[in-house]
Amino acid sequence: MIRTIFILFFFICGISFSQNLEEAIYTATETFISNKNDASLKLLTQQEVTFKNHVKSKDEQLALVFLQCHKGYYLDEHSRLKEAISTYEDALKRFNNNELSKLSDFDIIESCLKPLGNLYTKTGDYTNAVSTINQYIFLAEKSKNTKHKISGAINLAKLYQTIGKHETVLKIVDDALKVSNNNTNQKTLLQSIKASSLIALNNFEAASILNNTASKFENFKTNYIIEFQKGDYQKALISFEKAKGHIQNANLSTRDLAKFYVEEAQLQFLLQNKNEALKSLQKAIKLLVPNLEGNSLPNKTDLYAENTFIDIFDLQATMETNSKKALDCYNLSFYVSGLLQENWTSQENKTRNQSDNRIRSEKCIDILFYNYQKTKNKALLFEAFQYSENNKASVLKSINQKKKRLQQYPNDSLLVKEFSLIKAQERYTNLLIKEQLGNNQAYKVNVLSEKLISISLQLKALKPNIEKKYPENKNVYTLEAIQKKLSKDKAVLVEYFYGKNNVYQFVISEKVMHVESFELTDETKQNIISFIHLFDDASIINNDIGNYTNRAFNIFNVLKLNTTLAYQNVIIIPDGLLNFIPFEALLSSKTSNTSFEKMPFLIKSQTIAYNSSAQFYLSESVNNKNNGLLGFFPVFENSNQKLTYSINEAHAVEEEMPSKIFMSTEASKESFIKNAAKYAILHLSTHASGGDFITPANLSFYNETMYLNELYSLDINPNLVVLSACETGVGKLYKGEGAMSIARGFQYAGAENLLFTLWQINDLSTSQIMQSFYKNYSDTESAFFANHQSKMNYLENETISNAKKSPYYWSSFVYYGKLEPVKPNFTLFYVFFGIAIALIVLFLVLKYRKHDRNTSRISS
User: Fold this and answer.
1) Do the Cβ atoms of 177 and 190 come closer than 8 Å?
2) Which residues form a coiled coil (predicted)?
3) Which pTM was predicted?
């Protein structure tokens, strides 16, 4: 009886405490709402920490979600974007994990998902923005909430407009305008978005028709954009001033008003009204940093993750006549760009946003190179080189650093969890891509989007703890470190920066560094493109050998490679379109010879290796201790894509290397995923594609296609990957990051040394080159040397016809990786040693027999 009374007492007290806690949370939130300021925010944050430690029931969790949504709104209003995102993310995670939609009709779309999606867009986190917006569009369709569905379409259209996908914007807007029950404000906003994209596509007439129904502010602003796009800046200014006269009725946020003044500054700058432009920029800065005093640049501590700052500093740098101040402005832009990227977890997002940093890097290199020409201060050259390096393969560098850290601390649960999440992120991204390429079912897309958002939140939660435990290594390197490595390798490093207006060539040897540049005129660009297209088909070169020799020598000169001819070993770090040039097939001197074997190909005077970054060249690799080669040869018999010579290639590989070969039906994607991490060498002879604007690069197994993102999710550490398949080095080209190719996928997965192809080729020549490659590799254990020697052996082979010695057949393979020294071959030593021993033994035997015979005679 007493026990029952105690249980009832505690049950009643528990209910009372729960109700009091729920009420306390709502009271704290309402108190904050009634008096919003930094002091009340500080108090609310302190209360939030206490509430988080005690909430248990779903009602309490819902109350806390209510608090966090209001806190997030205030933080967003006051430009504390990173904190706002974190607060909204926690609210969303709490709402979903506790399945609070079943408890209440709380509008999670309006209170959390919409502002969170907008914040992702503001901070350039487009991957999470798309996932979040698609998620609430799905929820709106499910609940038949037209208002939220159209809001989702508006925000999605704005996002795609930001990244320049205007055709996509038009489709989204037109679909949204077809929906019945559109309210007037939403319809007007959709038409305004459509007008802006039509202008971007130079469809001014259609944009003007839509503009007739807009407000006076929007009407004049659209007219300004049209005139601006046409290049009539004087007329554009007239319309801009008219729009400015109606700005009070435009209801612009502080951020949008700051952007408005940046637009005004850009227009005044183009009209050469520098003072007016600077005044407009100062207005924009003062709006974003209200406490800033004077007209000086803000300190880094005043800045936050807001891309409007980047527009301001970039324009101010352009107007600066003092080179130091211009570089200071650009460096502030880089700093803000870094703040934006701190919150990104998707590599697609990081890759997509490299373009702006690249343009800025080129301007910094321009300034430094110009100053070097005036001062001959050699320190400026390495500073310019660092701007080139900082924006090369940054996503690959990041994942490489994470993998090396995990290799060093394999039992750290934080790092294991981080890497597990990264792999899951790529796996779900791949499934999402496949779904969008196939059925594109809204339910499946939503489920995958939810999973990706969840993974992103978990990665963000891990990041502070990992950074605290392992302070970020900025990968500081010196010119001396590079030159020391080059001295050891007896090599020269040639790095290109392929900009918008110029191409820079940085040449570093063991003793000196120099920089060359050439203007990237339309003619020069076309010459480079035309040379690349010579390899589209075997007949192009063979039908006009003279055209080839002229172009090959021309590109050699354009790329200023004559300065490197004194060096035997060359590391080339290409950039932009130069990623697709087979440097070994260039000609180092003019020739009229039509015999390919006798032509002065660069391969005859130099051994070339490529790399994605000087940082990768400097990094120490950890060799896979597993032995043997894993080979995949689907062959595709009984199909119109049969790889006849792939069978010869498989036999050639088996003859030269201890191998595990999967042929035909055994060469499945599942077998590859299961076995790839167990072998030191991976060899794939199959079909591949560089993809297109919709479909990513992919690799064919017998039963299934593997897309690029699925490769990203692998964790391998081979000593070498050989991709004997068509165009494995081809893919959508991103400035700075390179081609999104199958080869890059293997680099991301953990391969540091790769041999891959730049164009479509599957011929007897490939199997011959592969046989020679593995014979040389088996003898020397150097892929760097084996790649070079296999091509030389091919060119010198007298049984191969001149037509088949065209560089089309042998220069497709390029080697990215380390300059491994040739391992000493003691075979001849052992042969001669064995012969010597045998001769000595024979001599002793003969001597012994002679002695024995003489002894016998004496005794007889």
Assistant:
1) yes
2) none
3) 0.87
E strands, 113-195, in order: none
List of residues 6+ apart from 802 with CB closer than 8 A: 594, 595, 596, 597
Q: Check: CB of residue 353 under 8 Å from CB of residue 333.
A: no
636-639, long-range: CB < 8 A, 24+ apart? 636/687, 636/700, 636/702, 637/664
State the pairing for strand pair 513-519/607-610.
Answer: unpaired
**Coil, strand or helix: which one is 610?**
strand
Quickly count: other Cβ atoms within 10 Å of residue 9's Cβ: 10
Does pLDDT of 460 surpass 60?
yes
Q: Hey, how many other C-beta atoms are within 10 angstroms of the C-beta on 766?
A: 24
Q: What is the per-residue DSSP string for 794-847?
A: HHH-TTS-TGGGSHHHHSSEEEES--PPPPP--HHHHHHHHHHHHHHHHHHHHH
Nearest in space to 333 (alpha carbons), one of 312, 362, 353: 312
Strands 629-633 and 659-663: parallel
DSSP state of 111: I
What distances in angstroms separate CA 282 from CA 272, 285, 313, 699, 754, one per listed residue? 17, 5, 11, 52, 51
Q: Tokens 């020679």, residue?
A: 772
What are the Cα distances from residue 393, in Å, to 209, 332, 633, 705, 708?
45, 22, 31, 26, 16
Backbone phi, psi, residue 186, to 5°: -65, -40
Give the C-alpha separation, 470 to 406, whole Å.
11
SS3 321: coil
Distance CA 154, CA 705 (A): 35
Alpha carbon of residue 311 to chain centroid:
22
Written as one letter, the residue type at 693 is: F
DSSP state string for 352-401: HTHHHHHHHHHHHHHHHHHHHHHH--THHHHHHHHHHHHTSSHHHHHHHH
* Nearest-angstrom CA–CA distance, 729 and 574: 13
pLDDT (tens digit, 9 = 90+) per residue, 395-426? 888 888 888 888 889 999 999 999 999 989 98
- Helix (H), strand (E) at residue 514: strand 513-519
- Is residue 686 within 8 Å of 634, Cβ to Cβ? yes
What is the C-alpha separation between 504 and 494, in angstroms, rounded?
10
The sign of the torsion formed by the CA atoms of 579, 582, 584, 585 equals negative
Which DSSP letter does residue 668 get?
A: -
Q: Tokens for 347? A: 């590599």
User: Rounded to an integer, what distance in angstroms lies between the CA atom of residue 264 and that of residue 277?
Assistant: 7
Q: What is the DSSP letter of 677?
A: G
What pLDDT digit, counting tens, does each position of 105-132 carry?
899 999 999 999 999 998 989 989 999 9
Distance CA 401, CA 748 (A): 11
Higher pLDDT, 625 or 759: 759
Residue 361's region, left for phi above 0, alpha for psi from -120 to 50, else beta, is alpha
95 vs 687, more confident: 95
Burial class (CB in 10 A: 0-12, 13-18, 19+), 153: buried
Please indicate whether residue 847 or residue 315 has the higher confidence score (pLDDT).
315
